[in-house]
């Protein structure tokens, strides 16, 4: 398949940045919360973009969409984040057509995740796709592509061991604590922020540290209480944050704010304090490192932890790639079919015109001819001829583009529309 410009004069692009080249600070500049995502989608509609999906997670921000030039998508991203075009250019990737499709498959299958085999991204992709659909920003091509990616990711999850063992971000934090703090079970641990990542971290902490001195604080207290109830942990008021930090040996920050929720002024005690910041953008102001008793570790450092589990997962990559190729081949053959469907339709139309003209001539010559039977025979022949052409175009050994041109020339077909 040489061309993917199935939309009139537009190409399919994936533009974005990820943990691979962009550090947490830069990723933070391009992160999109729900409001900015909605603003971006609305702007895309105003700009008459026909199909677009935008995802923003702690590890990456990406836009998949149709455009004449990728800058149209880059501009949308920069207009709705704190990032600039210059900054984007330094760390970004831009994929077109087949490469963009391959990229979505790899991302959605966890092969491009910061922690290999982390399937969190596929649920983000589903949510983003639903949002685009709601905004009328999803064409048939993108819908079908996302479904194929979901199918590949499901198969990889069940048919390989790529997500075996615990290597999530929250597990990595617990592992870090174990490797760096003695007597973990006797330490006071404070978890600030009990959203999704906070909840997972809490579960891992309870499971692995056997520590009963874990305190939870969340801006909305009842969310912390729901989690605490499950494990019998202590919940304190948001207003007591400073006091609770003073009582802690380890502070885990999992808040999802756009600006720091913790800075040096809130830390009053002089005893050693390890702070793990799991947020993107960073929610702990680096100025805490000015305090001699504080050591700060960010998510990006935690994710560098490699262990046996990750090694075992890496061995599964070739298997996952085979699955991706299989699903992608199905998708591409659907795409091929869509590409020639308008021409086959136009051909059928033309043959039908021949039939009508022949019938008119016959009626004049022989008013008694059996019209019903002639109709039946002609329609069967038309169907057989178009089927033969369709089979030929589906044949892997032929160049679809050349054959399409040839058919259009022979039958003098007008330009059939090829919109997705
Ligand atoms: N989900 C993941 O797999 C993952 C992985 C790695 C890193 N992260 C990062 O972890 C952070 C949290 O992600 P999440 O998925 O857990 O999000 P989430 O489920 O939406 O939870 C967000 C949490 O942050 C709190 N919060 C938001 N703004 C705040 C503010 N201004 N002050 C105090 N608390 C605030 C929320 O409190 P309320 O309950 O009061 O709203 C909630 O506890 C993000 O920075 C994200 O990038 C997430």
UniProtKB/TrEMBL annotation:
Substrate binds at residues 57-60, 113, 118-120, 124. Its EC number is 1.2.1.70. This is Glutamyl-tRNA reductase. During catalysis, the active site Cys acts as a nucleophile attacking the alpha-carbonyl group of tRNA-bound glutamate with the formation of a thioester intermediate between enzyme and glutamate, and the concomitant release of tRNA(Glu). The thioester intermediate is finally reduced by direct hydride transfer from NADPH, to form the product GSA. It comes from the Bacteria. Residues 15-160 form the Glutamyl-tRNA reductase N-terminal domain. GO terms for molecular function: glutamyl-tRNA reductase activity. The record marks 103 as: Important for activity. Homodimer. Residues 320-413 form the Tetrapyrrole biosynthesis glutamyl-tRNA reductase dimerisation domain. Belongs to the glutamyl-tRNA reductase family. It comes from Mariniflexile ostreae.
